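Our consortium's second objective concerns turning raw sequence data into structural hypotheses that experimental partners can test. To show how far this objective has progressed, the report includes one record in full. It was chosen at random from the queue rather than selected for favorable results. The single chain below, 68 residues long, was entered without modification.
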Amino acid sequence: MKKTIIIEGMSCNHCVMAVKNALLEIEGVSKVDVELNNNRAIVEGENLVNNLLEEVVEEAGYNVIEIN
């Protein structure tokens, strides 16, 4: 399963790593690619729940605009 998260508020590589590390903590997540230029994270794994993805990103300090 693959999901794309549109994220607002990332401005540097520190932001990229904060979002990536937060998402990798979720059970079932196997891969995370965060694209600063496109303001998105592409998450791969099993049993990905939108509410949990959004919660983790927002706890890291960023706003989730959309999850596809």
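The partners drew two points from this record. The chain has one domain: 2-67. The two ends are 11 Å apart (CA to CA). Both points have been shared with the crystallography group to help prioritize constructs.
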